[in-house]
Amino acid sequence: MRRTDGTQRIGAPPAGASPAFPATRNPQPITPSPRHPVTLMALLCATLLLGGCTAAPSVVAPAAPGAESVLVPAASEGAAPEPLPADETANVATSADTVGYSQTLPAVAAPRPESAPIVQTVANRPPPPPDPGTGQSVLVEGGSNGRLEVALTFDAGADTGYGAGILDVLGEEGISATFGMTGLWAQANPDLVQRMVSEGHQLINHTWDHASLTGANTGLPAQTPDEITQQLADTEAVVRDLTGYETRPYFRPPYGDYDAASLGYLADNGYYLSIWWTCDSHGWDGWGSQEIIDYCTTNIRPHEILLLHVGAAAVGDFQALPGLIQVFRDGGYAFVTVEQMLQP
User: Fold this and answer.
1) Mean pLDDT across 236-255
2) Computed over its alpha carbons, how large is the radius of gyration of the chain?
3) Which residues contact 282 (CB under 8 A, 6 or more apart)?
């Protein structure tokens, strides 16, 4: 991982300290599949001689992706929608850059602002720290208020995975967490996104399709200012249309890739807080639950930001969640969102 000289950071460990986590993660790059609309089955009205009837449309939910070797919570299962005839396929707008993916995603339609249900933004949401005005997004590696706090952050960008199960565990434990949200994932899982907001979790912008800003981990060209702007705006629009929630100014860099130029482009778009982590669980890399618990509870600091994932490939993250909660709770830590951690 390249750290640009002079990059401003919040909550960084003291100079000379050795972080208890690797500096880079390098999953295989993936390439997005085209988006298709959700089929809407409408019943036609039959006008009778002495009366009539009107039937409400029936909506078929998109199928959740899964893997034969991984048990996905029942809440994410569903029947795949039937494809529309070729002449009835909607023309859905896409982001400018979708070359970072190969993971097959559910076929869904873009949300319609005029009919999408709106979930009210979290009440009494704390204000973000002020923009330092440096012209670059600040890397957030913790807080500075002196309290013992841990933020559980989950990146959601591949498949539906354990989204519902994670929310169930957090709800049972009374914990608010932070979800790094790609636009593709939000569009494919509107019910889960709405549930996250209604249950008090924080959402942060994770680009539209998880494409690296710099190409460092994908070997692709760095994104242009216009491409980054489109990635951010498309994701913001989908989340706002579904929930009324604003993710700005919080951003989670895909693959952890950034450089001086991309941090400047983020700041230009109002995303002046780039959320880093103190421990990458490596659940995405096949680590088991006990490995994750041991790794992320060693050499812990007063402020911890754990990087976990929602997808089915990161089964270890889901299985480790109860153990992580127990260890930090026994250690006197409060569970907070990132925006709560940044409060004085």
Assistant:
1) 97
2) 21
3) 25, 291, 292, 295, 316
Gap between the Cα atoms of 256 and 19, Å rounded? 15
Residues 299, 20 contacting (CB under 8 angstroms): yes
Q: Assess contact for 207 and 235: CB atoms under 8 A.
A: yes
Are the CB atoms for 211 and 220 separated by under 8 Å? yes
Nearest to 231 by CA among 222, 244, 243: 222
Q: Which residues contact 67 (CB under 8 A, 6 or more apart)?
A: 312, 313
* pTM of the entire predicted model: 0.70
Is residue 136 classed as helix, strand or coil in its secondary structure? Answer: coil
> Which residues have C-beta within 8 Å of that of residue 308, sequence separation ≥ 6?
152, 153, 154, 155, 281, 283, 314, 317, 321
pLDDT in tens, 124-147: 799 999 999 999 999 999 999 999
Structure tokens at 299: 């050499």
Output the pLDDT for position 12: 65
- Omega of the bond prior to 249 within 30 degrees of 0, cis? yes
Distances (CA, A) of 311 to 52, 145, 271: 47, 32, 25
CATH class of 135-341: alpha beta
Instruction: Tell me the per-residue pLDDT of 197-230, one tens digit each, with 9 for 90 and over.
Output: 999 999 999 999 999 999 999 999 999 999 999 9
Burial class (CB within 10 angstroms; exposed 0-12, middle 13-18, buried 19+) of 342:
buried
Q: From residue 197, how far is each of 13, 109, 177, 194 by CA, in Å?
A: 31, 21, 10, 5
**8 A C-beta contact, residue 274 and residue 266:** yes
Q: Enumerate the domain spans of the chain.
A: 135-341
Helix axes 225-243, 260-268, angle to 10 degrees: 50
